[in-house]
């Protein structure tokens, strides 16, 4: 009802409106016929003798078409003037060619939409042609129009002053419209800068593209903004119209809260945004007609959805700003309807009907600005109400605070006493935890010491057993030698002949197996010598590994420390496990040797554990130890092909008490000690590991320690 009421008054004003520029109709008789050339096959010589279809009005609109339209214009001059102007009230027709037939010859005037305005005879965006017609005479003119958009050809012919006055009035109307758009743009832009409300940002962008859209449709954009850009003249109209549709929907979303009130309509409008973009892509890709057809249908659909949203949200949700929105869109759609009725010859063609979209758009922009301004008032009232509620709540809180103060003071005293007691308990617990931590660290050291003792005992036991097992045979062989000496002395002191003595000695030697006895004694002595040397080497390695001076910095051989560690661990290295050593030529390193040996022991022990867990005593295990150095650091690589570790384990491996071993197999402090020891040396430790493939530790130790 509201929309019908507005339309009724608008039509009443329209029917009462008489434009002075129509006076030319009483002076010049004009009949227009048309032929549609769908295949662009006719020339002027073909057209002259063809029969034209008579048009009911002088403002035909053929809609979207790629056809060429030929117009036959029959003019009767009833005034004394002989020079007139023919104007086409459409700045977006691609090509217009005017044929002035004189003595069977055609005087040709052509205007293209891409021709800059400043290069035209008449400095206007509308195509204007000069027409010579003697007073009281009749003449026939032909007009060829082609394009790839809406083929609306409003034909006007009249005196120079009349046509130019029409153009001037049209520019005045658009100037007023532009002023409204600029004022609304700046006003709302400054409001956005002040209050930072996204609604104003969307509305400012909407105003901008709406103004540009009308400037494009009226030809002013090509005249003033991009007169020399053929690409923009052809495509800007469509693209900016698409942007106007998109920003109008975005503004509607934000202003009416469509997503909250009308979820289905919100989804439908989101789809129309996608359709807008598709139409722009098609148009830019050269599909002009399809792109514009999609644009027209989508604009009608989105306009209906937007208008419905305003109506529904106001009447059903009682959201007051929706009323301004609904009225504003009603004015705009009224302007569109009047423009369409003008094209259908239901309403007369005049300045009002031809500019009805401008008028409706200007009213829409102004009303939407009022709507936004009204929202500020709503926010202000809401803020005042909120402040009043806050004040009331504040007073109530003051009362409650006073009542609670005494109670809280009592509770604070009670809580303070409880906290003191809790603090004492926490202090005792902290002391206990520190003692427990010290005990655990000592336990880790004792575990390492136990491993060291077991390894040394095993390693020394083998060569000692070898020595002790050779003692009894050696004693027996020595006793035989003593007996041989007694026998030799007895034979030598006897009175027997020398030959007999010699024979007796030879017989005794054969009985004694003296050569074998000699070989056996040498073998036993050699074995005991090797066992003693092996024991000495183990003791030396133990001395290198244990480093009684480990709490002081000194220069040490890293390779020697690694080798002593392997000697200590020799008892746990299975025969199936292959140890590869690639020691580089290293300089002496300033370090804590004993602590580094503990690092090597912990890492190597874990590597052997990972290998044994994967291969379970079978062959295939490989432990590689490599060292190298540069001018500032020593690099130690310890790599195994054991079970490996996932990333989450690597992240926690240096945390105290973290272990992946079974209960009783580890304390979880070994790798924490490794980390702290490397940091104490101002070094670095890196880990690369893949599950099922193995782990590599890279240790970086500076050659010299710097006090930090």
Q: Would you kindly provide a written description of the structure presented here, covering whatever features stand out?
A:
With 708 residues, the protein is of the alpha+beta class. It folds into three domains: 28-158, Immunoglobulin-like; 169-380, Up-down Bundle (Rhopdopsin 7-helix transmembrane proteins); 548-702, 2-Layer Sandwich (Heat Shock Protein 90). Helices cover 60% and strands 16% of the residues. The chain has helices spanning 2-15, 44-47, 160-195, 198-217, 220-225, 230-256, 258-261, 263-284, 288-317, 321-343, 351-354, 356-493, 498-512, 514-546, 558-568, 593-615, 647-652, 670-680; strands at residues 28-37, 53-54, 61-64, 68-77, 83-88, 95-102, 105-112, 128-132, 138-146, 150-152, 155-158, 554-556, 578-582, 589-591, 622-629, 633-640, 684-690, 694-702. Strand 17 (684-690) and strand 18 (694-702) form a beta hairpin. Helix 3 (160-195) crosses helix 12 and helix 4 (198-217) runs antiparallel to helix 6. The protein starts with a helix and ends in a 6-residue tail after the last strand.
Helices and strands in order:
Layout: H1 2-15, E1 28-37, H2 44-47, E2 53-54, E3 61-64, E4 68-77, E5 83-88, E6 95-102, E7 105-112, E8 128-132, E9 138-146, E10 150-152, E11 155-158, H3 160-195, H4 198-217, H5 220-225, H6 230-256, H7 258-261, H8 263-284, H9 288-317, H10 321-343, H11 351-354, H12 356-493, H13 498-512, H14 514-546, E12 554-556, H15 558-568, E13 578-582, E14 589-591, H16 593-615, E15 622-629, E16 633-640, H17 647-652, H18 670-680, E17 684-690, E18 694-702
Parallel strand pairs: 13-15
Antiparallel strand pairs: 1-2, 1-4, 3-10, 4-9, 5-8, 5-11, 6-7, 6-9, 12-14, 15-16, 16-18, 17-18
